[in-house]
């Protein structure tokens, strides 16, 4: 898909050089923690790359040019629609709900994959239980405070325990560039389901296709099953 790759201040050339040198300490020089992981996992170019496993690093994706930062103190996730008790959850409210951890790969439909990412957050079924889902609800719609990106799940998918409102990634609060303070993490599906900058969760009567789904990608984006578009790059 045609997401813009954002390199967030570190020139790709520099990262490639660091990757070629194979420096685990590269991230120290780069500074930012997430950049650390990006640097360490960037596959070296050239012949060396051919003999090493294809270790994908995260790309930062955003369909919008810039996204307003939300502070951890004032950020809210509003749960609304077909629920008994609509509520805007602060991070402190989320922290009082049961916490779920998952160690899973993160896989973009375009082919890059980051192995074994450590996620912490509130399993979506626990959040849904806290607001009480109305009997008419069939689906969940997610909105980003970037103002553009949306996603959806059937209610059955949303009740899986490997779907999180993630607040931590690899031992730290989810960074702004990775969609913090709160992002969705849908472990069994391709990365485009894992909406960043999560601001709204609405229970609806039917699935409303999300941003990429309106551009032709599968609503059911299971990794390893029929997926993406027929002409999707691999
Ligand atoms: N709001 C928003 N969420 C998004 C996207 C986006 O462009 N905007 N891109 C999706 C895609 S295609 C992928 S692969 C992942 C990438 O997550 P990352 O930027 O943390 O690597 O975010 C997903 N969630
Ligand atoms: Mo993606």
Description:
By secondary structure, the protein is an alpha+beta fold. The chain has a domain at 68-215: Alpha-Beta Complex (Sulfite Oxidase, Chain A, domain 2), CATH 3.90.420. Helices cover 20% and strands 28% of the residues. The protein is built from 7 helices and 12 strands. It has helices at 12-21, 26-30, 33-41, 47-51, 91-96, 124-131, 155-158; strands spanning 4-6, 60-62, 76-81, 87-90, 100-107, 113-123, 139-144, 150-154, 163-169, 172-173, 183-186, 198-204. The strands form 3 sheets. Strands 4-3-12-7-8 form a 5-stranded mixed sheet. Strands 5, 6, 9, 10 and 11 form a 5-stranded antiparallel sheet that branches. α1 packs across α3. The protein is globular and about 40 Å long. The model is unreliable at 1-56 and 230-234 (pLDDT under 50). The structure holds ligand MTE and molybdenum atom (MO). Residues 3, 58-63, 108, 144, 146, 149, 178-179, 191-192, 194-197 line the site of the ligand Nc1nc2c(c(=O)[nH]1)N[C@H]1C(S)=C(S)[C@@H](COP(=O)(O)O)O[C@H]1N2. It comes from Actinomadura chokoriensis. Residues 68-212 form the Oxidoreductase molybdopterin-binding domain. Keywords: Membrane, Transmembrane, Transmembrane helix. The chain crosses the membrane at residues 12-34. This is Molybdopterin-dependent oxidoreductase.
